[in-house]
Amino acid sequence: MCGIVGYIGFRSAREVLLSSLKRLEYRGYDSAGVAIVNDGIMVEKKKGYIDTLNVDFDGTIGIGHTRWATHGMPEDRNAHPFTDCDGKIAIVHNGIIENYMSLKEELTKKGHTFISDTDSEVIAHLIEEYLNGDFKNAFFKAISRLEGSFAVAAIHRDERRIMAVKNESPLVIGIGDHENFIASDIPAFLAYTNRVIVLKDGEVCELTDDFAHVYDFRGNEIDKEVMYIDWSIEDAEKSGYEHFMLKEIFEQPRAVDNTLHSLLSRNDLEFEFDKIVIVACGTSYHAGLVGKYVIEELIHVPVEVYYASEYRYRPSIMDSSLSIFITQSGETADTIAAAKRAKASGNITLAITNVVGSSITNYVDKVLYTNAGPEIGVAATKTFTSQLAALYYFATESARNRASVSRTRYEKLMNELRNVPYVIENTLLLEGRIKEEAERIYGSRDMFFVGRGLNYPVALEGALKMKEISYLHAEGYPAGELKHGPLALIEGGIPVISLVSKDKTYEKMLSNIKEVSARNAYVIAVSPEEEVSRYVDTLIKVPSTDPLFSPFVNAVVLQLLAYHTARMLGREIDKPRNLAKSVTVE
Is residue 13 a contact partner of residue 567, using CB atoms and an 8 Å limit? Predict the structure, then answer.
């Protein structure tokens, strides 16, 4: 939800913090701020984007924050960092302190003065309360009082160290030479180091110029593995594209190819199950819905798909289900809570995530990594198609293991899957044609996305993309349901984007298209079939592929349609209002 960074070393802390925060701005942009040790602690923080900060001081140790508001309106006084009463301590925080009101009342009675409406400020005062000449010990005592989700970094004006903690909010350490970093996500410090320590829940770190110690909450030191990240800094930059989202749309052939290369060598997916439950949020939920259709088609076992926020409150059911949890960041709070619950119920658990060592990996039996590289744009694109690739791989391998498809069919499916990156490349060549349609529809107030079978979830995803970045009202529907209510909303000129695949639903889709055409809708078909042009206002003719794999093609078309529509409307495409990249609180 928010992004935090910290630096200690020989460089300009101002430059490191501000450049690192820019790479985390996708995590929040309601306000931003930095605190740097310089003859005391100096703080600059403001409502708005990082570019609004005027940091006219410097040093070699400091912390920074970019905020997505949860407690307290986006105002200067609610921006991070926060200091204690005497300005000796500064903190930044990501997450929610659930017991902050009782702590605030306790500290207020002891004479502490609060200036904000946030839950985070109590952390600075709590450390101050326990401070008795030992900053490290005071930090441990303070965090032991906190309840909820939190990643916290803290500095003291008289000590050359950064103290930090992770509990249900992301935090990673960057290891340099005579310098060290802390951040919510790896791209923040990737320009300086590719050596990373991933913290787990309940772990505390102490950073100085030359070491990074990790402890448990009791102060016992933990031996941690240093990982080497093979992303380049170019992976986390725009590389000449106008927006991160467009760059990431065009990175999909490589992202899917990397995902498949990492998965094709796996031979450890022989699970015993009689039902599958898929749990996710947002775009990942739509990937799970596509997965349901593919898995049921190939494995012939029932699949249920739940929003994580709903699954975690359903009645506990002990069964032999395989539960699959999909989360791009691996830090989505509702999905992690759902995984914990499934594990406690005795389910076999599998996670699909893009981030190695992320929190979700600690609560499941096995992990499929998507290897899509960093995704900066808030609206998910390459991570969606990479999640699809992982689900298709899982379904195909499971079908082989369970002998639910013939050897010939298995080999054909694998060939189609390996060919997906090339099909996506050919689809991206249609950008100019898709842009023409965006020019026709960007003035619309409402629009509908329809599909059947496994393209119904793609219609949902297309509508979500349009809503996320263009702020236009868009709805996704199964085309067969139009006559059960939504058809009443169709009127002259309203765009209806129809996904038409040459599968068993083909003739039915043509019939549904005729229904909306008869109400004078402006029908855009996305299909490889030239014949469809006879029934619609315009056809975006896409590359032919096995209908089972059509979601990869159609998703890319709808991503580009949403992107160009939003661009024509002048929207903040990479940072849409009210949204953050990783939802790490409930």
Answer: no
Please give the pLDDT value at position 581: 61
Instruction: Give residue-wise pLDDT tens across range 407-424.
Output: 999 999 999 999 999 999
Catalytic residue of the set 2, 45, 292, 467 = 2
Could you give the angle at the alpha carbon of 503 between the alpha carbons of 497 and 509, nearest 5°?
40
Q: Where are the beta strands (DSSP E) in 339-445?
A: 348-353, 366-369
7: three-class secondary structure by DSSP: strand
2 included as an active-site residue:
yes
Considering Cα of 388, then 392, then 398, then 399, what sign does the dihedral take?
positive
d(CA 75, CA 31): 7
Residue type, 84: D
- Res. 582 pLDDT band, cuts 50 70 90: low
Kindly report the backbone phi and psi dihedral angles of residue 504, in degrees, each rounded to the nearest multiple of 5, phi listed first: -70, -10
Element (H, E) at 128: helix 121-130
- For residue 131, the one-letter residue type is L
What tokens does 238 get? 């725009």
For helices 121-130 and 135-143, angle between their N-to-C axes, nearest 10 degrees: 130
C-alpha to C-alpha distance for 471 and 577, rounded to whole angstroms: 9
Distance CA 388, CA 384 (A): 6
75 touches 46 (CB < 8 A): no
Beta-bridge mates of residue 324: 278, 350
Query: For residues 536 and 554, what is the distance between their CA atoms, to the nearest angstrom?
Result: 17
Q: Per-residue pLDDT averaged across 283-294, rounded?
A: 97
Given strand 322-327, what is the order of strands in its sheet? Answer: 303-307, 276-280, 322-327, 348-353, 366-369
79's CB contacts (< 8 A; 6+ apart) are 31, 32, 33, 45, 46, 47, 65, 67
Q: What does each C-alpha distance from 412 to 22, 406, 416 come to in angstroms?
A: 45, 10, 6
Q: Give the per-residue pLDDT at 562.
A: 97
Distance, in Å, from the CA atom of 445 to the CA atom of 215, rounded to the nearest integer, reads 54
| Domains in the chain: ranges and CATH | 3-234 (3.60.20.10), 238-428 (3.40.50.10490), 429-586 (3.40.50.10490)
* Catalytic site includes residue 281: no
* % of the chain with per-residue pLDDT over 70: 96
Order of strands, edge to edge, in the sheet holding 180-183? 41-47, 31-37, 61-67, 3-8, 180-183, 172-175, 195-198, 227-228
Identify how many contiguous H helices and E strands the chain contains and give both numbers.
Answer: 15, 24
- pLDDT of 20 strictly over 70: yes
Please count the other Cβ atoms lying within 10 Å of the Cβ belonging to residue 387: 30
Among 510, 298, 499, residue whose Cα is nearest residue 416: 298
Is the pLDDT assigned to residue 585 strictly greater than 60? no
The answer on pLDDT for 253 being more than 90 is yes
Please determine, for residue 580, whether its predicted confidence score (pLDDT) is greater than 80. no
- Inter-helix orientation angle 100-109/121-130, to 10°: 50
Handedness of CA 395, 400, 404, 407 (dihedral sign): positive
Q: Which of 18, 72, 71, 73 is nearest to 49 (CA)?
A: 18
